[in-house]
Amino acid sequence: MAAKRDAPTASVTVDPAGVVSGWSEGGRLLLGWTAQETVGRPVTGLLADPPPGFPGSHGVGSGSTGVVPLRHRNGSTVDAVLTVQPLRGADGRALGHVVTAQPWGRRPVIADRAFEQCPFALGVYDPELRFLWVNASACRVMAHSEEQVLGEKYRELFPELDDMAYTGRLSEVARTGEPARLITVFRPLGSNYANAWATSMWPVRDAEGRVRAVANWGFDMSAEYWARQRLLILNEAGSGIGRTLDVIGTAQELARAPVPGFADHVSVDLFEEVLRGEEPPSASAFAPGETITLCRAAEHSAKLDTGRAARPTTAISHAPGSVAARCMVTGRSTVELAADPGQGGEWAFGPGLAADPAHWPPGNPVIDGTIAADGLTGQITVPLRARGALLGVVAFSRRDRPEAFTADDLILAEELTAKAAVAVDNARRYARERTTALTLQRSLLPQRLPSQEAIEVASRYLPAGAGAEVGGDWFDVIPLSGARVALVVGDVVGHGLHASASMGRLRTAVRTLADVDLPPDELLTHLDDLVIHLSGDLQPAGDFEATGEFGATCLYAVYDPVARRFTLASAGHPLPLVISPDGAMTPVLAQPGPPLGLGGLPFEATELELPEGSLLALYTDGLVEGRERDIDQGIAELQRVLDHSAPSLEALCDTVLDAMLPERRTDDAALLLARTHALDPHHVADWDVEPDPSQVPLIRKFAVDQVDAWGLEEASFVTELVVSELVTNAIRYGEPPIRLRLIRDASLICEVSDASNTAPHLRRARAFDEGGRGLLLVAQLTQGWGTRQTTSGKTIWCAQTLP
Fold first, then answer.
1. Which residues of the chain have pLDDT under 50?
2. How far is CA 122 from CA 152, 203, 373, 468, in A?
3. DSSP sequence for 546-581
4. How far apart are CA 193 and CA 409, in angstroms?
5. From the CA atom positions of the chain, what is the Rg in Å?
6. So what's the pLDDT on residue 20?
7. How far, in Å, CA of 7 to CA of 5, rounded?
8. CA-to-CA distance for 457 and 460, rounded, in angstroms?
9. Is residue 125 a contact partner of residue 154, using CB atoms and an 8 Å limit?
10. Which pTM does this prediction carry?
11. What is the spatial distance between Cα 383 and Cα 406, in angstroms, rounded to a whole number?
């Protein structure tokens, strides 16, 4: 094998008649013939099969031949490549030909043929990047012949490529002698399509090891490269689309994802119903010839490098017969091309790739020259569908690049749209549920706080951000008898409609129990029993699914402006913060009980005496607890933020929310601030009543005189009647001690207390009954009445509205 590689080259001179006139030593070494045996004989005698046009065979030819078998002296044949060149004298007269024969297996010959016929682009350059040699594939890529480029500098011949990494890397290999590999994306000369090339570069050294040239090879890997780019776009879209449960945000993510790697401009149009979280119209609902109106939800352009961030207001009408209208009605995507790229002999990413009609779905592509008027080279329109519902339409456009869309591009556009469609539909469904839950929750929360004199109040409720569901936080302010007021704040476990509905149940229950005027600890005990019963209702029957666990925390507090007493009990809820008028923090030494729904554990009431003007802060854990801090840190921060000297409670609420809540909330937050008032002692009058019916007239007179002293003469008559009835009933049916109290507040309150625990009730008196009409009379003459239990008995009260 080594001998064959080192076989010599034979040189032969042939006269015009085809007779050998000269024979080299290489001829003897190659074929075994001596000069004496060959000179003077026809050259064709050395050929086993003379090719046409060979000297001495039908005329004279020149140039290289293919592989020709030569006769060896020993009778064998030697395959060789013959090169024939004319031989002329000084006067230009033809003297014959010079024939050289190189054995086919000799390395330079087979290597030359291999490199020349290589489908890869091969090139050799000197250290100044002058062309020394290129093969036919490289000439096709450059759209230049070998004669046009040899001796020319790469940078001067192709100045548009001078700034590319390719030429810079070639120079670096020539300078450092280190080989390199890279992938370059460029548009070959004479082509409208960008190709990706994998290139290797290496130095060519002489025997002394000096770099004499730089060689490189490259092959078109566009199909693999662009397939990888499509996968990267899909991967980025998978992590970038649907990050938020917001319809507009998802549409904007879809518009940004394929720009600029795939398209130059993307627009997303959605039905207005989708933006509102409602069910979109059915495609079958559109009559033939009907214009379809959508809202531009998002658009993004590579040229402007901006996307629509504002809420959409622009209505987009798609005329009957338009591409977008057809796509929405038929449910099929459409590719529009400004011109047929097949006429140029080359498609994007190489000749024939995706150009086969078998790659295209029926009806695609559509050659539409009118889109060129809008500066577009192509456009893909895809209906946005999810779970069988039509949500809108997406348009992917190219304007700044000449490449035509391919069938593979259509698949990518449909994949992107399908990913986004599911995310948009999820956001739509979430928006619908969240809107429903918010509507339900806000309808269950107090729309305005009741007017009363005991305290000044302000409140805030903020649902979680768009990325989380609505929770079950609530608060309430409930006027009670005796000018007292109840403050309530609670939090239901869970989120969504279930939490909102459960919150409504608990708020209604608290109001009902508050009307009974139970002490805070007893009220929470009854509320705990209710939660246990409600938890049993959550066990599904039949095919219904469970709605989740049901639990809650609650803080119930009562403030009495007459005694300035603040009584509270907690069921697993954070205790309120109390700040005295001088700004000092008043500790609340209470022990929170267990959360509601556990049962069997007691709740304890704690009572504080507050100076007038004290600030109370009731809140849910969503205000003080989060990912960045625990609840103790949050409470300490809330203490710091609360400013007793704030000009108003409303302003203080805003200050607290701005300081305490992050931009992205994961839980609801409720805040109830109250500043206490004390009732003027001159607006309260009380008397001890002897348990003797003869004392009733005297007590009536005391009451009337007091009402007149307050300047409430118009209320004297009713006051005299109700005092007479209530005191008489207490003397007749109650137990001493008996006491009457009048309170002038927003209303005129009359209270009669005794030591009996028996509560009176209304009944209908018959015609001849002597009793049973007293409480009915009280109920008719006043705007409210009731009974509350006390530690020493009961109190019956009634209230008259003051003018």
1. 1-5, 58-60, 306-310, 343-355, 466-468, 542-548, 764-771
2. 16, 14, 41, 59
3. P-----EEEEEEEEETTTTEEEEEEESPPPPEEE-T
4. 14
5. 49
6. 92
7. 6
8. 11
9. yes
10. 0.57
11. 18
